[in-house]
Amino acid sequence: MIRFGIAGIPLSSKGRTLYDGVKDAHNLGLRALEVQFLRVNTFEREIFHEEIGASAGEIPGLMVAEVFTKKTGDWNSGTYALQHPLEEGERLKVLSIPIASDYHKLRFIGEVARELDVDLSIHTPHYMELTDSGKAGEESVRWLKWAALMGNSMGATRVTTYLGIYGDDKDESLENAIENLKKVRNWMKRNKIRMKLGIEASGWQDVLGSMDEILEICSKVPNTQPVLNFGHIHSREGGSLNTKEDFQRIFDMTKKYARDGYYTHFTGVEHSAGYERQYTPIKRGDLKFEPLADVILDNQFDITIISSSPLIEHDAIYMKILVERQMLKRYHKRIEDKEKKSDKKKAQNSKTQKQVKSTKKAPKSGATKTQKNSQNKDKKKSKGEKS
Question: Does residue 68 lie in a domain region?
């Protein structure tokens, strides 16, 4: 299956809420939406008297990220923390975000998406620092956990993240990212969150996220998957994706981790010296979608393609049209080839039938051509002897 989708709410969506975005994506013929958890705003407060005994995740109008419990004397996150009956004196850390007002709303949006066959995923903030072993790394781990909590409530299939800029030592940065991602994976396992953890390719050479680095992470952190942002790969590698073979190389590199299908991003892009400068509409960039469409159809990939173009839904629909046109061309070519093959077979059968008929019409008695020639020679010889 090929799913086309968008990063965020459609530009044409009048309601500007995630609920409206899911419905509008479906109405546009799109089958995937990546929720953008791009800004982290939190506040803390004491629990109110009427909230004592209630579960943190069930309080209307609150998107609780963490609970400071008396039992542990520390902040706790996860599905179990959200189910914890609140006690007097405990504190809440609350997310103030435009995605949804509370977990009830997230579950409702997830139900709507499933009914409309719109596959949901969620993206962490862009300013992640999983490459850090200190406070910045710990903060990024928390944000990744919070994104996973929200995604889990919606029934999202994956949470996607960037990794962060390199420190003084690239190898050390990679090891820090691996350790931080392992912490998140172990936490997800304990909380029975079964989403994929997507590691997105970076479009900047000073940010961790080359294809080789992502493959190393996926080999060491369970249940992780490369997120193939073709605009980023193209930019980081100096404009490397131009032919079918170029795209095929990327798919071949990552097929080991695509048992449940490939998850990708596509956009036009301006780049120079191995750095992405800015996203552009697909028609304006030097990264062309047509070779990618050919590779997808040649291999019959199960794939999700998220448009991260400035023209979000417009370019998602544009890519969908290009694939459908290519599918139609291939269908007509198969029909033409089949007809040509049929015509050739008919011509061969007709030729064979004519040969059979010709054989049947040949005289059953009398001299053959060879015999007549022999008889003529004998007559000439006889005349010669008489003379």
Answer: no
